[in-house]
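Section 5.1 Outputs to date
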Amino acid sequence: MVLNQEQILEIIPHRDPFVFVNEVLELDENRIVGLYHVTEDKDFFRGHFPQEKVMPGVLQLEALAQTGAVLALSRPEFKGHIVYFGGMEKVRFKRKVLPGETLVLKVYLTALRGRVGFAAGEAYVDGALCCQTKISFVVSETAF
């Protein structure tokens, strides 16, 4: 493990109950691999769906975005900033994500122009692709 939950919370501003990356296994300048443990006690399972609990797709995308934020904010020039969504393209969901599973979150930085960046994200469970997307983002101008 490269980063544990405590270290991740030192990098990104997200807090419980809206933290969707638990640990980081790999981190370099342009790539990150993180994990999110999808435990049955998560509040979103109460309503999505009570008869068949499934992690919402938008939260899978949020998990990828937060993992990407760890990647971006690990750069010294962005320490203490916030990363905002610019947009998402080519979103595809391939498999349901269920309680008890662990999402493997892979984000690749494809371009960075000043504070604006572009990345590709993929989420897997047991080697099976669950979702994928292209992400654009902007890093806040000032640190908080």
